[in-house]
Design a protein that fits this description.
Layout (H helix, E strand, L loop, with lengths): L14 E2 L3 E5 L7 E9 L2 E6 L8 E9 L5 E16 L2 E8 L9 H13 L15
């Protein structure tokens, strides 16, 4: 019997993104360090050394080196949508509370715009909206 192919229902393109993230949970003083696997306008894929917990509210401080070689940081809030143990780490998906925007994450959005334009990556919206970037 032939295996049924799954349909990709994601509405936003994901982009490979090199950076680190500090994840803070409400009520915890110390943040958890993670590595960024990918990013979209509405979420983040992470590699974490410990589980965070599906459904947990988080604040993510996203750090990266911009096109000029300067370390930049922006913050986004969201919720852990999924996590899966992989060897000695956890793969974690975070959905942001709102899309990345120029008011709350200006440096990050500028960097993503530059990456999309420079490497001719697909525009972020798979549903063919008018490109915002």
């Amino acid at each position: 019997m032939k295996k049924k192919e799954t349909e990709n229902t994601r509405q936003w393109c994901r982009y490979q993104f090199f950076g680190s993230a500090t994840i803070t949970l409400p009520g915890e003083k110390e943040g958890l360090n993670a590595t960024i696997a990918n990013i979209s306008l509405t979420g983040l894929g992470l590699y974490s050394t410990r589980p965070i917990g599906k459904g947990k509210r988080v604040t993510v401080n996203i750090s990266y080196v911009d096109k000029k070689g300067k370390v930049r940081e922006d913050i986004a809030a969201g919720k852990v949508d999924w996590q899966k143990k992989f060897l000695n780490m956890y793969l974690v998906g975070v959905n942001f509370d709102e899309e990345l925007n120029m008011i709350n994450q200006p440096h990050l959005l500028e960097q993503l715009t530059w990456l999309i334009d420079t490497y001719r990556w697909p525009q972020p919206y798979k549903d063919k909206r008018i490109a915002m970037l």
